[in-house]
Amino acid sequence: MIHIEVRVDIDRPAAEVFEYLEEVENNPRWLSGMRSSTWTSQSPVGVGSTYAQVSQFLGRQIHTSFEVTRHEPGRLITIESREGSSFPITVTRIVEPDGDGRARVTELVDAGVEYLIFNLPTADAEGVRCLEERHELAAEGLRGEARRFRHREAQRKLYGAEVVRRPSHIARECDQLRQREMLAMLRRDPAVVAELAARGITDMDRVMFDTWTYGHALIPEQYRGRRVGWVDVWYRAAPGANPYAHPVNGLHPVVDLNRMELLDLGSTGRVDPPRVMGEYVPRHIPGYQARDDVRPLEISQPDGVSFQLDGNAVSWQNWSLRVGFNYREGLVLHQVSYADGGRVRPIAPGVRWRR
Fold first, then answer.
1. pLDDT tens digit string along 128-156?
2. Helix or strand (DSSP H, E) at 179
3. What would be the CATH architecture of the domain defined by 176-284?
4. Beta strand ranges found along the chain (DSSP E)
5. What are the residue ranges spanned by the domains of the chain?
6. N or C: which end of the chain has fewer CB within 10 A?
């Protein structure tokens, strides 16, 4: 059984937040990858109410039917997947006042291991962390909806009518999980596959897509109001080769980062690849000859290492930390702490090394 718990503070009254969460047709507005969510029973909402939703994750459509099994108006709602759904899952959302007109939302998710296997390539600890990250992103989506609601409300008070909204569109890199989803979607999209084939690229496993979000001022007019991104395309000449040595120029797809769909192929015509050699792994460098004038270096620990590794958590003597990597910052050490006389002292929440 997988258990995930996420909390988020919303700058809106608890009653309004619960009313928003209770209406499942709002789900596509704050849940990433949600295609549709519709009631299959009559109002009002209560125990026994049912709805169906369709979401997309890692290029696959997920069909789930839910039934409300617990309902405390204004405070709590529990939904459970029904027979015939893609996997068994129970979700409880609790909304409580948090002072000064704010609300705290707690989401509890309990699911069978099928939830992990169905959603991610590997059912391991890293997969569970990715799912936790996905639910944290959903919480961020909910917080963003509250900010937009508050903004529109302020406009009405100030101007007497709602001004055309210019939504916040933070120019930042996509997180690792969305990169995985987008990669799977683009590799399967018929238009992308056909465009690459026309350029002589047919092995999609060697194609790499880098997805970047637009700054607000650069969003194409027809996509205003969406969370859109543009994609750089690269190709590995051989397994293990450097993809950045072979950019697929003239091809920059435009994608919807929430719905995980292709909006525009972004093809401006084929551009010949650069003729320079950009490989750095020895086996891919033509004529590479290793030096033979260095003496061997040998490191031996016959009794084993002194540290312990649990997933990405490292402990050594009184030190503990988590090791991570991302494509922008490289090596990142999280939660660095030191056990000092029975008290764990945080040293740094996140340390980054750059070249």
1. 444 445 545 455 555 554 555 444 444 44
2. helix 176-188
3. Roll (3.10)
4. 2-10, 34-39, 50-57, 60-72, 76-81, 89-97, 103-111, 207-213, 228-235, 254-256, 261-264, 308-310, 313-316, 319-326, 330-340, 343-352
5. 2-159, 176-284, 308-352
6. C
